[in-house]
Amino acid sequence: MSQQALAEAAGVSRQTIANIERGSYAPSVYLSLRIARTLALTVETLFPLDANEGDPQ
């Protein structure tokens, strides 16, 4: 699926999708769910957590 097609299905701009792919934009939970649903994936599959992410320092 192209960035443009995904953007249209999720209701955002193509630039937003590009920024998410680059890691320069963290989508809201709501947008994450819309993107995952569009791609027939789970949010966990689409946005996997790094094993160390969120661990207290």
From TrEMBL:
Pfam families found in the cross-reference section: HTH_3
InterPro entries attached to this UniProt entry: Cro/C1-type_HTH, Lambda_DNA-bd_dom_sf
SMART domains noted in UniProt: HTH_XRE
Record-linked PROSITE patterns: HTH_CROC1
GO MF annotation terms: DNA binding
Keywords tagged on the record: DNA-binding
TM helices/strands, residue ranges: none
CDD domains attached to this UniProt entry: HTH_XRE (cd00093)
Transport in keyword set: no
Domain HTH cro/C1-type: 1-46
SUPFAM superfamilies attached to this UniProt entry: lambda repressor-like DNA-binding domains (SSF47413)
Stored PANTHER family: DNA-BINDING PROTEIN, TRACRIPTIONAL REGULATORY PROTEIN-RELATED-RELATED
Name of the protein: Anaerobic benzoate catabolism transcriptional regulator
Organism: Corynebacterium pelargi
